[in-house]
Amino acid sequence: MVDLNRVIAGAQLPALPQSAIRLLELSQNPEIGAAEFAAPIEADPGLTGQVLKFVNSSYFGFSREISSVKLAISLVGMRTIKNFALWSAVFSLMPNPKCGPFELKTLWQDSLRRALFSRDMARVLGAKECEEAFAAALLQDMAVPILAKESPQVYVKLLEARSEGRLRLSILEQRVFGWTHATAAGLMARTWNLPDAFARLVERHQEIDYWMTQGAHDPLGLAVALSALLPPVVDSVWQERSVFLDCYARIDRPGKPEAEELLAAVDTGFSEFAPVLKLSTPAKSILDFLHEESVAAS
To answer: For residues 196 and 192, what is the distance between their CA atoms, to the nearest angstrom?
Structure first.
């Protein structure tokens, strides 16, 4: 078994920016107001610009331009701004390894889709802190580029062995290393002193059977685990479609939308959100995957 702690230590994981660390600290204090929360953002001109561009995007659709960080926080909430800052920080730290079929662009496309789905799914499940599901889903695969950079020859083989998604990357990693990129992501989160509850969501995002039994007690975990079943943009077919639909059908919540309706909302949200993060829209939407498989099945 490969020592994961040694791998992460050898990767010399860069530190999170001080502004992101401070926002994480402040977000744990329910007494903090918008002015105090805005301070570390306003002290970082680059982050200030990113936050204002984010809040002024079509995703939120405000009728007038938001030019104040304090107003932005008041309008969309501290957790939304905190999670955007966290994603921006992690995004800026990720290497882009030259590793066979791996592309950092497609990883972030997958991550944004999963994050948008997780937020909406958490709402369906009645969770109170839906933004936490968004952040955990967004960063669930953040260890992959780190691991691919550290072991490029191994990851070329692992990524090629996925064979259009017929085998999960995590299954192959477990066979080779004795752990998965989900475990590594949890370790990274703890190395950065992110909340333990967040680290747990990240490191257990592939345990759908566990979360299906725990969903009533922890809807955030179930939302994130369901997001991990969505089709990667690099695949031509949705291999885990039946698993996803079966799990979704078993969820009994009043007002639960049809799966197609929920996935359509994710596609729409992606088209509105992606330009803020400088991401292109994938060639196939999630609905495309859903409908193609429906035709094939019939």
So the answer is: 11
Tokens 């002290």 appear where? 43
pLDDT digits (tens, 9 = 90+) for 7-31: 888 888 888 888 888 888 888 888 8
Q: Report d(CA 208, CA 284) in Å as an integer.
A: 25
What is the distance between the alpha carbons of residues 287 and 109, in angstroms, rounded to a whole number? 15
Q: What is the pTM of this model?
A: 0.90
Other residues' Cβ atoms within 10 Å of the Cβ of residue 41 = 24
The number of angstroms, rounded, from the C-alpha of 14 to the middle of its chain's C-alpha atoms is 19
Instruction: Please provide residue 45's backbone torsions phi and psi, each rounded to the nearest 5 degrees.
Output: -55, -40
User: What distance in Å separates the CA atoms of residue 111 and residue 87, rounded to the nearest whole number?
Assistant: 10
Q: Where are the alpha helices (DSSP H) in 192-258?
A: 196-203, 208-214, 219-227, 241-250
Q: Could you give the residue ranges of the DSSP H alpha helices within 56-180?
A: 69-76, 78-93, 104-124, 130-138, 143-150, 152-161, 169-177
Cα dihedral 221/232/92/19 (nearest 10): -20
Average the pLDDT over 135-159 and give the result: 91
Q: Dig out the tokens for 80 from the structure.
A: 């939304």
DSSP three-state, residue 45: helix
Q: Please give the biggest Cα pair distance in the chain.
A: 57
Cβ within 8 Å of residue 272, ≥6 positions away: 57, 58, 59
Rounded (5°) CA angle 149-202-222: 140
